Amino acid sequence: MALDRFGRNINYLRISLTDRCNLRCVYCMPEDMTFRPRAELLQDDEIIRLVGLFAGLGFHKFRLTGGEPTIRANVVNIVKEIAATPGVEKIAMTTNGLLLDRLAQPLADAGMHRVNISIDTLDPLKFKKLTRWGEVEDVWRGIRAAQATGLEIKLNAVVVRNYNDREDVVDLARLTLYQPWQVRFIEMMPFGDVADFQLAGVVTQDELQQTIEASLGALMPVNQGELDGEASLYQLENAPGRVGFISSVSHPFCASCNRARLTADGRLRLCLLREKEVDLMTPMRAGATDNELHAIMKQGIWWKPWGHGLAQDVIPLNRVMSEIGG
Ligand code: SAM
């Protein structure tokens, strides 16, 4: 078991498979983003080794993210290897869905359990404006492919004021009346070069709830309002699906945080919104033994920050979201 000094059991690792992406969402990275040379990113065998070491510390849930995880060469094989690692119970992926039409089945066959697909609006023009390069129809194709495999599906929408904060939110929430999906609205968080835009455009959970309820009726708390992971869940009357809110800004959930992140360049990041990181790649490439790496990981986890400092205007400037792995 990997405990931090506040007694939290850290057992969930989110791995950024690559800092690259086939979209340029306005809230995620600048359009002219430059990426790291591939040699500076973790190689397949290094990822698999680290997953084994984390599993040895009691981590049992792993999420592949990025950048865009589906553009990583060998992603199916990476999933297969992670699924075969003793101690691994759940593998999920966060993806923009563009490549799922051909990858959903191989990923499911390789042992993936769940996919979180990002779709910020159903409107093709607004989708293009938000993602700069994307076609919403391609995401739908990916969603349908994932559904056909039986993978558990959650949809993620980041809400940005004056982009998708009104009828888009209602249209997305309405999907839960027809599908057993969780549609989750994510409050925008500030990072690096994009922080000013993000801070100006954040839309809080309370406002989103009001917008949805004004059109679709009451949102009733599920599980007496308990968090499901990082999301507070609600349900529209008679809906098979759920509406979730991930409200790191207005309702932080740091007290129950059980996660750590592995960046594409092999740093252990203990809080998404704090710059502190622990370098695992350099010692690994210098020949560190499993015991030595375990010691570095445990020490890093022990010092996991209590929580983010957004309320005190502490904003992480050293990376944007795609490099950390959202
Ligand atoms: N490319 C994949 C995707 O689009 O889902 C995975 C990586 S992306 C960084 C992971 C999630 O982070 C997505 O749901 C994305 O919308 C969200 N995200 C990106 N920037 C964000 C920000 N500034 N605040 C909140 N969520 C953000």
Structure explained in plain terms:
- The chain is α/β, with parallel strands linked by helices and 326 residues long.
- The chain is 32% helix and 18% strand.
- The protein has helices at residues 44-56, 75-83, 100-110, 124-131, 136-149, 167-174, 195-201, 205-216, 281-285, 290-302, 321-324, and strands spanning 12-16, 61-65, 90-95, 114-118, 152-159, 182-187, 220-221, 227-228, 231-235, 242-246, 259-262, 267-269, 277-279.
- Strands 1, 2, 3, 4, 5, 6, 7, 8, 9, 10, 11, 12 and 13 form a 13-stranded mixed β-sheet that branches.
- α3 (100-110) packs parallel to α5 (136-149) and α6 packs across α8 (205-216).
- The longest helix is centred in the middle third of the chain and has 14 residues, at 136-149.
- S-adenosylmethionine binds at residues 21, 27-28, 65-66, 68, 94-96, 118, 156, 158, 186, 188-189, 191, 198, 321-322, 326.
Secondary structure layout plus pairing:
Layout lengths: L11 E5 L27 H13 L4 E5 L9 H9 L6 E6 L4 H11 L3 E5 L5 H8 L4 H14 L2 E8 L7 H8 L7 E6 L7 H7 L3 H12 L3 E2 L5 E2 L2 E5 L6 E5 L12 E4 L4 E3 L7 E3 L1 H5 L4 H13 L18 H4 L2
Parallel strand pairs: 1-2, 1-11, 2-3, 3-4, 4-5, 5-6, 6-10
Antiparallel strand pairs: 7-9, 8-9, 9-10, 11-12, 12-13
Helix pairs in contact: 2-3, 3-5, 6-8
The chain binds S-adenosylmethionine.
**Model regions low in confidence, pLDDT < 50 over at least 5 residues:** none
N-end to C-end Cα span: 24 Å
Give me the number of helical elements: 11
Ligands bound, unique: S-adenosylmethionine
Shape: globular
Q: Work out the helicity level.
A: 25-40%
Q: What would you call the structural class? A: alpha/beta
